[in-house]
Write a structure and sequence with these properties.
- The chain is of the alpha+beta class and about 375 residues long.
- It has four domains: about 60 residues, Histidine-containing Protein, Chain: A, CATH 3.30.1340; about 80 residues, SH3 type barrels, CATH 2.30.30.40; about 60 residues, SH3 type barrels, CATH 2.30.30.40; about 130 residues, endopeptidase domain like (from Nostoc punctiforme) (endopeptidase fold (from Nostoc punctiforme), Alpha-Beta Complex).
- Helix content is about 20%, strand content about 35%.
- It contains eight helices and 25 strands.
- A six-stranded antiparallel β-sheet has the order 20-25-21-22-23-24.
């Protein structure tokens, strides 16, 4: 097999194992060593490594492709955000694009370490770089169980979820006690003690503090606070009206369009991917109709820059065609109307309506909490 055919074969494998480069590592290249082709690099899926090694053998080529995570058995592959936010970047440098965020207690698979930076894969399989000081790390007792739980979106057993917006953990179980940690809605914590109207939190790095009893709930009872319905999602999202837009944002500190959708749906029991074009593949298509009469609360609207193009914006629809979204055009979370017959229809709504590429119903029944 010639080097050209080897490269062509690797491109075919990339289309299979790394069709979306945001969801895994595929860094495979062919070079010449001592007059013979040699395949090197790194991948994050075992099946990808097997296929690359098989192709290299067929080509009589040398191969040294690393399977991530690096480090082997006992490596500290579990990373946990230990403060309210951990910023995920496209490259291992502070000035790189902010592509997403982990919030307090969220976990990630640590793929490798480069200087001060960690390449991680989050529970939605998104791959990005985070500064090593933003996470605490350990070696899970069962790495296979950890990976399964991570990618299924299950927190560690016994955890609680912060449900209040703008909460802070304080030093003592008393009003006006000194703050010790910033919290965000959706943050995951341990609760070893309940004392009257307060619960004691333990953060991933061991820091402790207290919050009001109504500010957090056991993870298995989250559905009691955030009902799994389209109307509840809209009512919840409307609490963020006026919050400024943040590219890469996934929390109450600032959302981008898909981060807004993913976080809200997640709190209400529905898992969605990170970006709008990925979310556009979820659920079932909806025929909205010329006046939006086919739309139900909680349907998702997707928008493309060109007809038939990739979705670049998403919002949450209310029955009839009003849409709640985090928008650069509105500089934050706002309502817009997509149809002339809908209340509040204006120039921005008309422009959005012209870009509407799909409406999808992504609300599927969540797992029965009693069965988990």
């Amino acid at each position: 097999m010639t080097a050209a055919r080897l490269e062509s074969g690797l491109e075919a494998l990339a289309a299979i194992h790394a069709a979306d480069r945001r969801l895994g590592v595929w860094e495979v290249a062919v070079e010449e060593r001592e007059g013979s082709p040699f395949v090197s690099g790194a991948v994050s899926e075992p099946a990808a490594l097997r296929d690359v090694e098989s192709l290299a053998r067929e080509a009589n080529a040398g191969v040294a492709v690393e399977l991530l995570p690096a480090g082997g058995p006992g490596a500290a592959i579990r990373g946990i955000a230990h403060r309210s936010l951990a910023h995920l970047r496209a490259e291992p440098r502070h000035a790189a694009e902010l592509v997403s965020q982990m919030i307090l207690g969220e976990e990630a698979l640590v793929l490798r370490e480069v200087g001060e930076w960690l390449q991680v894969q989050t529970g939605d399989r998104y791959v990005a770089w985070v500064h090593r000081r933003s996470l605490v790390r350990d070696s899970p007792a069962d790495s296979h169980e950890f990976r399964a739980r991570l990618f299924e979106g299950r927190p560690p057993p016994g955890r609680w979820v912060v449900t209040a917006r703008g909460a802070r953990a304080v030093a003592e179980p008393a009003p006006y006690a000194a703050p010790v940690a910033d919290l965000v809605q959706g943050g995951i914590v341990e609760v070893p003690e309940i004392r009257g109207r307060f619960v004691r939190l333990v953060l991933p790095d061991g820091e402790t503090g207290w919050v009001g009893r109504g500010d957090a709930v056991p993870a298995e009872r989250l559905f009691e606070r955030f009902t799994p319905s389209g109307r509840a999602i809209l009512d919840h999202g409307a609490q963020f009206l006026g919050l400024p837009y943040l590219w890469g944002g996934t929390s109450e500190k600032g959302f981008d369009c898909s981060g807004f959708v993913q976080r809200l749906y997640g709190l209400h029991g529905f898992r969605l991917p990170r970006d709008s074009d990925q979310q556009a593949a979820c659920g079932e298509p909806v025929e909205a109709g010329p006046d939006g009469s086919g739309i139900a609360d909680g349907d998702l609207a997707f928008f493309a820059e060109t007809p038939g193009g990739r979705a670049t914006h998403v919002g949450i629809l209310a029955a009839g065609g009003r849409m709640l979204h985090s928008s650069t055009g509105r500089n934050g979370v706002a309502w817009d109307s997509l149809f002339p017959s809908t209340q509040g229809y204006d120039e921005i709504g008309a422009r959005l309506g012209a870009m509407l590429s799909a409406v999808r119903r992504a609300l599927v029944p969540p797992a029965d909490p009693a069965s988990s």
